[in-house]
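In practice, a research group might receive sequence data for several interacting partners and want a quick structural hypothesis before committing to experiments. The following worked case mirrors that situation: the sequences arrive first, and a predicted assembly follows.
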Amino acid sequence: MGLDDRKLAVLRAIVEDYVATQEPVGSRALVERHQLGVSPATVRNDMAVLEEEGYIRQPHTSAGRVPTDRGYRLFVDRLSRVKPLSPAERRAIERFLAGAVDLDDVVHRTVRLLAQLTRQVAVVQYPSLARSRVRHLELVPISTTRLTLVMIADTGRVEQRLVELPAPLLADAVIDLRRLANEKLVGVRLSDTPPLVQALIDESPPHLRPAMTTLSTVLLETLVERHEERLALAGTANLTRGGLLDFQGSLRPVLEALEEEVVLLKLIGEVEASTLRVRIGDENEIDNLRAASVVSTGYGPGATIVGGMGVLGPTRMDYPGTIATVRAVARYVGELLAQN
Amino acid sequence: MGLDDRKLAVLRAIVEDYVATQEPVGSRALVERHQLGVSPATVRNDMAVLEEEGYIRQPHTSAGRVPTDRGYRLFVDRLSRVKPLSPAERRAIERFLAGAVDLDDVVHRTVRLLAQLTRQVAVVQYPSLARSRVRHLELVPISTTRLTLVMIADTGRVEQRLVELPAPLLADAVIDLRRLANEKLVGVRLSDTPPLVQALIDESPPHLRPAMTTLSTVLLETLVERHEERLALAGTANLTRGGLLDFQGSLRPVLEALEEEVVLLKLIGEVEASTLRVRIGDENEIDNLRAASVVSTGYGPGATIVGGMGVLGPTRMDYPGTIATVRAVARYVGELLAQN
DNA sequence: TCTGGCACTCGACTGTAGCGAGTGCCAGTC
DNA sequence: GACTGGCACTCGCTACAGTCGAGTGCCAGA
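A structural hypothesis for the assembly, expressed as tokens:
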């Protein structure tokens, strides 16, 4: 069922106008604002076809047309031209990210930047532990039977855990423990540690074995098995933009979804390659977000992906602009990470 | 112009009913639901006085009465009886907090717990660095001119920073550097470090002095001077409870305020003793929160305070219940911290 | 000092009418 | 055959008038 070029142009015009004005767009307004070269009546005929095909719909009989999720999808896939960032935006990104002092800072700045540039809700996942390598393990004694395990990853993430030892341990023993653990584990992907950890225990001298066992358990349980992911969120206030018209009148479900880490991870964490992904309305698997769209991408130093980031807003969003921004920010952050 | 006991009882009844129903309360409903022992007409007279004194007001002529900020204040100060937590709530608190594996986990669990129990927005400040003591400093070389500084505080907080050395440093030198820094700084309050740091530089052997100087700069600048506070937030979805009637119709300003760390710190971070504080509506210094109330308190192991936590909701909130919950959660968290 | 009664106010709701944006369809034109 | 102008029709929105009822303030009387 072919849509000819003009019908596509009409759809594009409808999407653009609706995104800009947030009001159903009628045939007259359309020919006035766009150079379609035909009369309103013709446009009406085209609209009838587009509606039949499910790309647009009428809120009520005597109203203009509004794009459907399917319409946005077609728009994103075939009709939108990439909107290059303005130099001012590029500079803003660079300046904003340049001052970061550590990973926390990078993530926080990034998420605020994204929220500010897109005027939507932004989510940034910290570099995933599963995709990180161990750079260093540190053991800090607190008492003779307790120590703090600090793991520093090559992605800049630092995690600490309290370890309750089965028996008191002398300072020298702690040093041995640390040396052994570091020898075996530094440079290893966290997701690859499980088999190595067993070897680590087996090769420990007998007097260290109980301590090494508990240490390994903590390491595996808290850092690998329940994969400890962290997130930063910003821009929730932007949800109130568009005054309750978006999100079919209630922010409730959206705010609820945003509180669930699991949900957010699902949204932006499922990244294999650095391909940018757009999920529009119904395409979202989370029920609470059927009225929202998500633009997400992976990021990382060079070609490797260490985490995801993205933006969430009403289905009626500026897709070309948002896509361009998300892509650009992800690239800058990647470069920043590569430097460290 | 003393308010006699009955007038106070009327005020209490108005506050309780309004909080429960969220609708202006009239004189008839009042005598029906509370044993005041007088007729509606008498109550009306009392109401007139209460209104004159600024404790209640009428949204419009011909409507019931609603408490003013001043009315809530009087209620909180003199009229509310402490509402003891139910055993189920106590158990929920204990169970919820018991499973925490590290400081991050404690804070996250606490904030979710608070939000859930009070059905409002909860904020928890991480133990403040300024109030923490150094437990250990670790230096992890990344290259010959770069190392990661990790500071572990006695409150469980762990901070890391990248240090760019002015000149390459050998592994042995790094070890010396770490030893020196730890000797001088372990056990010291972060807020007390500045004078010690100068001594630390002066006493370093010449070949370590440049490195020690940059190290100290990083330490001071990022950890002490711009006091690095962290926060956790939960329950924003609860703002939509009460369907836009609270917060005079717009969540916008509230959500905006909640995004500003500085604002939140001001709300819950200004704690000297562990006294619980209630700020009602206009008493808040932040303009965006004139329609909100905040219940906050300090927490920490034993009698020392290391940070603040609190809850934010509509002025029309269940003060006795919220106060009891915040107090109880803060105490449990304090006990938990004392154990570690 | 309290109470019952009464007149009054005013927001909420309902029904009606007019307006206007927008459509679908049809006959006519290039 | 594709496009266009014209026209009747739909229907949401707004304004307006009328009614209802909750709640008040006040006053005379117990």
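Before designing any experiment, note the following. Strands of chain A lie at 56-57, 66-67, 121-125, 134-143, 146-153, 158-164, 231-234, 277-280, 292-299, 307-314. The interface with chain B takes residues 101-103, 135-136, 138, 140, 142, 148, 150, 152, 156, 158-162, 222, 234-237, 239-240, 250-252, 255-256, 258-259, 340 of chain A (CB under 8 Å).
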